[in-house]
Amino acid sequence: MSLTSVKEYFTPDGNEEVLELLKTYGDGALIVAGGSFVHGLDARNLLTGIEVLIDIQNLGLNQVRSDSAGLSIGAMVTFAELQQVKEIQNAAALGAVRDALNYPPVQIRNVATVGGNIAAACPYFDLPTAFMALGGVVSAQGPGGSREIGLEDFFAGLFENSLETSEFVTGLILPLLPARSSSAFLKLETNANDLAIINVAVRVTLDKSGLCQEARVVVGGGVGETPVRVDAAEALLQAEKLSDDLLQRAGEAVQSELQPMSDHRASAAYRSAVAKTLTERALQQAVARLK
Amino acid sequence: MKKLITLDINGERYELAVDPAESLLQILREKTGLIGTKRGCDSGGCGCCTVHVDGKAVYSCMVFAHSLQDRKVTTIEGLSQGGELDPLQTAFIEEGAVQCGYCTCGVIMTAKEFLATEKKPDEEQIRHAIAGNLCRCTGYTKIVEAIKVAAANR
After folding, report:
1. CB–CB of B20 and A8 under 8 A?
2. Where do the structural domains in chain A lie, given as residue ranges?
3. Cβ distance A170 to A140 under 8 Å?
4. What value does the mean pLDDT of chain A take?
5. Are A149 and A137 in contact (CB under 8 A)?
6. Pair A45, A1: CB distance under 8 Å
7. Would the pLDDT of B152 be above 60?
8. What kind of architecture, by CATH, is found in domain B87-152?
9. How many CB pairs under 8 A join A and B?
């Protein structure tokens, strides 16, 4: 890492100290959790002018709590730690998170954190796509106290989140979903360390008669500045029985709705075609988890 | 501005003056002389720089040295016990799993953590476990064999 402009590395012991540092250094401060994407931001010239790094490992943000509201995950919880959480391992509703955590290599899982993965607002990351399908809500701390922001509002653009410079991410809440909810995630990558060419996360909730009460279809990886929800596909599934034929049509809706980009990883046409197939397969997987 | 950090590397206590953005890889190679850990891509894509922090495999190029106050680091130099090579190191030699050797230390450190948790891994599990380490020589076959042998020989 070059980061030659960095003059100081802080490891504060409490939220107040973090807020004080953010106040002092403003845009010149970068909050560091696991640190595994700092080089990625640096390589994209997004860290010019960063003077200080603020390491938040000593704030006690490494807890996962499960209660009637859902799953609260501290910003410093690593991917590997999240994999050990009982609900993540077992719940059909959290299947998309389980799937997404299985892609990165162990060296990343041991270091990368939930908070860092969200705060980076990188549209090629995996967990944000999965979290969006589950209606994830970000917890942030600022000088005026804490607040919660839905992920769709939190992601403001390419590598941009909607926090003020005086605020930082303290965790993520995955709201408890109704019974008969299930989710799944799939990704196309060239190797274990690659960002997504395309990733897809879906979530369905069935009613007592087996009809789809609610559906979410989210696609990431070069389809927009943030992961995107595909309303047309969600609407197709709404109030319907999730037959194989319908799942296929949902995939086709994704293909026709998306306007992906072309880059060195893949062409727009290829991304669209893959998104269609991954959507159909992810929906099949989610439905299978309810059986 | 350099600040002092204290950490344990291979069972020895080190006190080092470290720049704010220096990586663990940098301090290992440039400040402690432990050059068994290799610098490959320096951006978390190749696995050559894999070491353990508190027993967990990490890319040392991505870890800020200042995040490691009082932590325990193990490098490839720390695997041998009483002058005896680790069974993984022996298996890599005997199975011919080393060609140019540049990726080897990283692969062994990854395999070391993996075998600590998986007692009887099958081939698919081994290949998944080392997915974060690139080798451009062997085609992985002999690496996978060596890890299988090391797992069986314990």
Report:
1. yes
2. 8-55, 64-175, 181-288
3. yes
4. 96
5. yes
6. no
7. yes
8. Orthogonal Bundle (1.10)
9. 88
